[in-house]
Amino acid sequence: MSKPKLLIARAIFPEVIQKLEQYFEVETNQPDEPFSGTQLIQKLQGKSAALTTGGDRIDAEVLAACSSLKVCANMAVGYNNFDLDAMTAAGVLATNTPDVLTETTADFGFALLMATARRITESEHFLRAGKWGKWSFDMFAGSDIHGSTLGILGMGRIGQGIAKRGALGFGMKVIYHNRSRLDAAQEAECKASYVSKEELLRSADHLVLVLPYSPASHHSIGATELALMKPTATLINIARGGIVDDAALAQALRDRRIAAAGLDVFEGEPRVHADLLTVPNVVLTPHIASASVPTRKAMAHLAADNLIAFFKDNKALTPLNPAALAAK
Ligand code: GLV
Fold first, then answer.
1. What is the pLDDT of residues 88-112, one digit of tens each?
2. What is the pLDDT of residues 197-214, one digit of tens each?
3. Residues 119, 165, 287, 296: which is the catalytic one?
């Protein structure tokens, strides 16, 4: 029997390609040039399966043009590149990579918070530029992390990981806001208190965004929300571009309406709003929160294992729309 055809849309670990080749006729993209929408449709012709990343959009148009497609495994926990309703309607199974990246991403959220609050990259640029002539009492004085109030917007697995790091490691007071409140045991484990979004904005010394992107969370942080924050506050976004209004944030940073921001994700990335590139009080990283080698391997293997489980046993390890499985 011939093997089902699989497109791996972006470059991936060779060991994962070898594993998939046992089950699939694989087309790869090791040169790693992202496909345009039209190229993706063309590459998916005759394919039953796709291994995608967050930049590969699977929507109603793609599905209508790729009728052989049965399953898409996203190598990311976020899946706003999938139109899940359209995939379910087309009977296409979608999977993501939760859990395996939780701790690595929470580590990074904390690293970005520390770099931002303590002005690490700004001071490094100063030093590299040969500007360090003398010590001064207020040189790159930032804000404290220990003992401060950590606010978390979006309290899923990664948010809880950040809460634990803050409460247990740095003696922070942790407050959070989320669509649904955690149960009492989870709140106790994270030492986190539930507050309204307004209270979160007003009280946090450091506000970390870890909520999923959807039309409902678009510009959750804009000029109005930034105006409620403390002028000494830092804002960290490791969630998705579009959750923050980047133009409004650049203006707030320039006007020192908040002290600093740390951003791993951007509206329209890999483009970055030009104003963010010119303000000094922002730490910018290129969407690398889950990028440790072991975690990226675990994500790639989980995506591959979802595809294999689907074709071997008509099941998936981490399905997003199990209704598509049930319809098989
Ligand atoms: C990365 O952004 C992910 O969603 O895994």
1. 999 999 999 999 999 999 999 999 9
2. 999 999 999 999 999 999
3. 287
Helix (H, G, I), strand (E, B) or coil at 244: strand
Rounded distance from Cα 267 to ligand 1 centre (Å):
15
Same domain, 163 and 230: yes
The answer to whether the CB of 54 is under 6 A from ligand 1 is yes
Whether residue 66 contacts residue 47, with contact meaning beta carbons closer than 8 Å, is answered with yes
Catalytic residue check, 296 = no
Per-residue pLDDT, averaged over 186-198, amounts to 98
Q: Whose CA is nearest to atom 3 of ligand 1?
A: 76
Residues 90 and 109 in one domain: no
Annotate 92-149 with DSSP letters as a single string: -EEE---STTHHHHHHHHHHHHHHHHTTHHHHHHHHHTT---S--TTTT-----TTSE
Q: Write down the catalytic residue from 165, 206, 240, 273.
A: 240
DSSP-based three-state secondary structure for 206? strand
Asked if residue 236 and residue 133 are part of one domain, the reply reads yes
Cite the DSSP H helix spans in the chain. 14-21, 37-43, 60-65, 84-89, 102-117, 120-128, 157-164, 170, 184-190, 197-203, 223-228, 246-254, 274-278, 293-313, 322-326
**Same domain, yes or no, for 244 and 213?**
yes
Tally the domains of the chain. Answer: 2
Whether residue 114 sits in one domain with residue 63:
no
CA 94 – ligand 1 centroid, Å: 15
Mutation choice for ligand 1 from 290, 292, 320, CB with most ligand atoms inside 8 A? 290
Residues 188, 79, single domain; the answer is: no
CB 99 within 8 A of CB 72: no
Whether ligand 1 lies within 6 angstroms of the CB of 242 is answered as: no
- 302 CB under 6 A from ligand 1? no
Is residue 287 annotated as a catalytic residue, yes or no? yes
